[in-house]
Amino acid sequence: MSIMESMNIGANALKAHGLRLDIHAKNVANVDTPNYVRRIPVLNATEDISFHGLMNTMKEDVFGVGTLPYLQGGVRFSGCVEDPTMGDKIYRPGHPDADENGYIRASNVNAAVDIADAILAQRAYEANLALINITKSMANRATEIGRS
């Protein structure tokens, strides 16, 4: 893997985990908003690194017997899905969003879950930032070795 590929993997992960943090922040901000449906970020691997995917890759390279194929790796943000759990029904007959029986649907956001997920996303962001800094340091050291 080249230095630039390592930087690209880190940059894509920074983008994905940054978007993940934004979604969790919006969820927490809307914890008391009626009819708000919690959004769950979806992250996927950039390549199929499952056993089945690895076997299919090796099958295509018949003459590379005994060597594992090169897989770039990384993560990408694939979008969001809505949380299917329903929020509680609250009786508020004067509310503009109330149904014909006077009930509104509370948000289905659990702030503790979204804060915990945001902390995980923040730590993943920081780990990928460290990856980029280490890669940059390696590149600087390599140029210093080349000068001497």
Structural class of the helices, strands and pairings?
alpha+beta
| Main sheet: strand order | 1-2
Largest sheet: 2 strands, antiparallel
| Overall pLDDT level | 86
Indicate the low-confidence ranges by residue numbers: none
Overall geometry comes to elongated
Write down the domain tally.
Answer: 1
Rg, nearest Å: 23 Å
In N-to-C order, the SSE pattern is HEHEEEH
Terminal-residue CA separation: 25 Å
Number of separate strands: 4
Percent of residues in helical segments?
40-55%
Number of helices: 3
Strand content: 5-15%
Write a brief caption for the model.
The chain is an alpha+beta fold. The protein contains 3 helices and 4 strands. The longest helix is centred in the last third of the chain and has 37 residues, at 111-147.
Report what the structure shows.
The protein starts with a helix and ends with a helix. The chain has 148 residues and is an alpha+beta fold. α1 runs antiparallel to α3 (111-147). The protein has a two-stranded antiparallel ribbon with strand order 1-2. A two-stranded antiparallel sheet has the order 3-4. Helices cover 50% and strands 14% of the residues. The chain has one domain. The chain has helices spanning 3-29, 51-60, 111-147; strands spanning 39-45, 75-82, 89-91, 103-105. The longest helix is centred in the last third of the chain and has 37 residues, at 111-147. The chain contains 3 helices and 4 strands, in the order αβαβββα.
